[in-house]
Design goal:
With 208 residues, the protein is α/β, with parallel strands linked by helices. The protein contains six helices and eight strands, in the order H-E-H-E-H-E-E-E-E-H-E-H-E-H. Helix 1 runs parallel beside helix 2 and helix 2 packs across helix 3. The chain starts with 8 loop residues before the first helix and ends with a helix.
C-alpha cells in the first residue's frame, strides 16, 4: 500500500474533521469532491485498523452520471494511486475496497429510493444545487440510513458549491448559528495550488 496524500488546508481540515456533520463549501476547482472521497477512505481505514471489520459508506450526487463520472471514477483513480485493491460493480453503483468495506453511490434524482441499507458514514456532494426543501429531504433520508455500528460515531458530511446562497439548506444548517456538531469549512478556488496556471483568473473573469 502506497498512501500519497497532498491536501490543501481546507481539504485537510475537512478530511480529518472529528465533528459528525462537517460541510466544506467552496468554489469551482477547490477540491471539494476529492476531499469527500478522501474523508470516507480515511474513516474506513481507521475503522478497520482498530476493529478489523469492514463498513459500508455512501456518497451521493445530483445525478447517476455524476455518480459514475465524478464518484466512481474519482475513487478508483485515488485507489489506483494508493495501490489499494478494489472491485467495481457499475450496475450496482458500488466499489468494494479490500479489506476496508463497501462504498455505495446514489443519486438525488429519486431521494425517496434512498432506503433498505445501512451505512456508517456518508458524503452529500453538491447538496446546495438542490432547492432547499428537496435538499432537506435528501439530508433526512441519508441521516436515516447512517446507523451501521462501527468504531467511530456515525457521520454525514457535505461538500458543495454555495449555489443557493443564504436561501439554501446548507446555509440554514451551517451558515448561521449552527447546531452542535455542525462545522463549516470554506474552500476558495484559490486555496488549491494544483490547478492549472491561469485557472483562478479565468474563473474570476467569468463571474465579474
Amino acid at each position: 500500500m502506497n498512501i500519497d496524500i497532498h491536501l490543501t488546508a481546507p481539504q485537510k481540515q475537512f478530511a480529518l474533521c472529528q465533528s459528525p456533520h462537517p460541510a466544506i463549501v467552496g468554489g469551482l476547482g477547490s477540491g471539494k469532491s476529492e476531499a469527500g472521497i478522501i474523508r470516507i477512505l480515511i474513516l474506513m481505514m481507521e475503522n478497520y485498523s482498530l476493529i478489523k471489520k469492514p463498513i459500508d459508506c455512501l456518497i451521493t450526487f445530483p445525478t447517476y452520471d455524476l455518480c459514475k463520472l465524478r464518484g466512481m471514477t474519482g475513487i478508483s483513480e485515488l485507489l489506483d494511486r494508493w495501490e489499494i485493491k478494489y472491485t467495481e460493480n457499475k450496475s450496482n453503483y458500488s466499489v468494494y475496497i479490500h479489506p476496508f468495506g463497501n462504498v455505495l453511490f446514489r443519486s438525488y434524482d429519486r431521494p425517496e429510493r434512498i432506503i433498505s441499507f445501512q451505512i456508517s458514514h456518508a458524503i452529500c456532494d453538491e447538496l446546495d444545487t438542490l432547492p432547499k426543501e428537496k435538499a432537506s429531504f435528501v439530508w433526512r433520508k441519508v441521516v436515516e440510513r447512517t446507523r451501521q455500528h462501527n468504531y467511530k460515531p456515525n457521520s454525514v458530511s457535505v461538500v458543495t458549491t454555495p449555489d443557493q446562497g443564504t436561501n439554501g439548506f446548507v446555509y440554514a444548517k451551517w451558515g448561521n448559528n449552527p447546531q452542535p456538531g455542525y462545522e463549516l469549512i470554506e474552500a476558495p478556488t484559490a486555496s488549491n495550488p494544483y490547478l492549472p496556471d491561469g485557472y483562478v483568473a479565468q474563473i474570476r473573469a467569468n463571474y465579474d
